[in-house]
Every structure is written in structure tokens, then in C-alpha cells.
């Protein structure tokens, strides 16, 4: 049986307002839906840590936690606006450091998945 690919969704989470944060979560979820449609399992930390979790731990905890989740994935796809996000920039650097494939568009991810069906 073929192993399902886990694809980490990286993009802005925090914002100056709760509404802005919710918009960022929803943008990430839209990409997660496309990842699922492509046949991979989306790993969307935005959904796991919606604003309801903000008071449970500090920012550094969540930044470290999401990088740990990233390390366990097969690839990373970046949501629009990721370059303006401290967390996403750190996730990009970590993905590059450990050699994870990174993608900016769902089309690129789909092509990679087609090439790696047997992996």
C-alpha cells in the first residue's frame, strides 16, 4: 500500500486583530482543501491553533511546535503572504535545512506528487 504524503501548510497566522487572524486561518484552510483534493493529507497548524489556543502557551511554544510538526511531513506548501510572517520564514528555513520539498503553488505540488507516487 502506498504511503500517503503529509503536506504542511505554511503561511501567516498572527495578525493585529482577531478578524485578521481568522482570515489567515481561512486562507490556510483553502490551501489545505486543495492539498486534500490533490490526494495528500494536509497538515494545517492554523486550524489546530485557532485563536482559542493563544492563551494556553506563548508564541515561542507554538512556533517551536509547528516546526516540529513540519519536520514530520513530506513536503511544505506556502500560503500567499508567507514572506511577511516570522513563523513562515522560520518554517521555510527549517524545510530547506532538512531537505523537504517546498512549493508555492498547488500545481507544483500536484506535479511533485505525480512524480513520487511510489515513494
What is this structure's SSE topology?
Elements: E1 6-10, H1 18-37, E2 41-43, H2 45-48, H3 59-71, E3 75-78, H4 86-98, E4 102-103, H5 106-115
Parallel strand pairs: 1-2, 1-3, 3-4
Helix pairs in contact: 3-4
Proportion of residues in helical segments: 40-55%
Structural class: alpha/beta
CATH topology description: Rossmann fold
Count of individual beta strands: 4
Question: What composes the largest sheet?
Answer: 4 strands, parallel
Average predicted local confidence, pLDDT: 90
Tell me, briefly, the overall form. Answer: globular
Distance between the termini: 11 Å
Query: What number of structural domains do the residues give?
Result: 1
Account of the protein in words:
With 119 residues, the chain is of the alpha/beta class. The chain has one domain (6-115): Rossmann fold (3-Layer(aba) Sandwich). It is 50% helix and 12% strand. The protein has 5 helices and 4 strands; from the N terminus they run E-H-E-H-H-E-H-E-H. It has helices spanning 18-37, 45-48, 59-71, 86-98, 106-115; strands at 6-10, 41-43, 75-78, 102-103. Strands 2-1-3-4 form a 4-stranded parallel beta sheet. Strand 3 (75-78), helix 4 and strand 4 form a beta-alpha-beta unit. The mean pLDDT is 90.
